[in-house]
Amino acid sequence: MCTVCGCGDSQVHGGHGHDNRLAPPQRNGKAVAGPLRFTPLAEDRHPPHHHYGQGPAGLHVTGMSQERIVQLEHDILARNDQDAAHNRRHFQQRGILALNLVSSPGSGKTTLLERSLRDLQGRYPLAVVEGDQQTQNDADRIRATGVAAVQINTGKGCHLDAHMVGRALQSLPDMQRGVLFIENVGNLVCPALFDLGEAAKVAILSVTEGEDKPIKYPDMFHRAELVLINKIDLLPYLRFDLPRCLDYVKQVNPRAEILQVSATGGEGMEQWYGWLDGRRKALLTEQVAKLQAEMAALQEALAS
Questions:
Q1: CA gap 46, 199 in Å, rounded
Q2: Angle between the 66-94 and 162-169 helix axes, to the nearest 10 degrees?
Q3: The whole model's pTM is what?
Q4: Which H/E stretch holds residue 260?
Q5: Quick one: residue 262, left, alpha or beta (phi over 0 = left, psi -120 to 50 = alpha)?
Q6: pLDDT tens digit string along 277-302?
Q7: Using CA atoms, how far apart are residues 287 and 174, in angstroms rounded to an integer?
Q8: What is the DSSP track for 208-222?
Q9: Nearest Cα to 248, choosing from 285, 281, 277, 211?
Q10: For residue 29, what pLDDT is reported?
C-alpha cells in the first residue's frame, strides 16, 4: 500500500506515478539525513495544475484506491436508485410534477421559490422539500408563503438522497396533480449524482457568480433540463459576460432550455411559470393516455 496517497494498486492511481518526488535531501548527488522534501514535476511547476479527476473513479479520496471508490459509488447509487424508483412511482401515480432545484449557495433559490409560490398559489397544489446542512431558516421562509414545507438537515452531508426525500413525503399533505419543489443543498457537485425520482433537474446560476460555472461544474449542468440565469436585474452593475455564460451552458448541454429571470424584479418569471405549466400538462397528458389504455384493456377483457 502506498504510504504517500494511501492507494492500494499501482495500476489504478488516477494518473499520478510514484516517482520519488518525496525524497531525502541530497548533497553532492548523495542522500543525506534530514526531513523528506517534495520535488514537483515540471508539469506541476508550470502551469500549476493538479487534476484529481482523471482516474476511473473521476475523483480522489486519500487512503482509498480508484477501484474501491468505483465499487463504493456503485453500491451507494444502486441503493439510491431503488429509493428513487419508489419516489418516481409515488409521483407518477398521483400526477405530481417533482423538480429538483440545484445550484451553488447564494444563487437565490429560496427567493425564487418564495416568489413562485406566492404567484402560483391557487393554480395547483404546491409543496417544498428543503435541504440544508443545518437550520430551518429556508423552510420557515417557505411556510410564511402559506405553502407546506419539510426541512431536511443533512449534517455534514452535501446533498439530498432519494431515501431522505421519500421520508419527507410522508410529512407533506396530499397534493395530487400538484408541483413539488425539492430545494437541494447548495452545491454544484454531489447533487448531480443522486436521482431523487424527480421529473427534471433545474439548475440555477446567478449573475453574481462566474459565467464559467457551467464548464467548471459540467456534470450538474449536463443533467439539467432547464437552466435559470437568476438576478439579471443586477447585470448593469456587474462584469458578468452573459453571452459567454449562455455559450458555456450550450457547450456542456445543447439540449438544455435557458431562461433569464429575476426573482426580485420579476423579469422572466412568467416564462418560468409557463415552463412549469407546460411540464405539468405534459405529465398529466401522459397519465391520461396511460389510464385510457388501461380502460380499453379492461373493456376488451369484459367483452371477451
A1: 45
A2: 30
A3: 0.81
A4: strand 257-260
A5: beta
A6: 999 999 999 999 999 999 999 999 99
A7: 18
A8: TS-TTHHHHSHHHHH
A9: 211
A10: 61
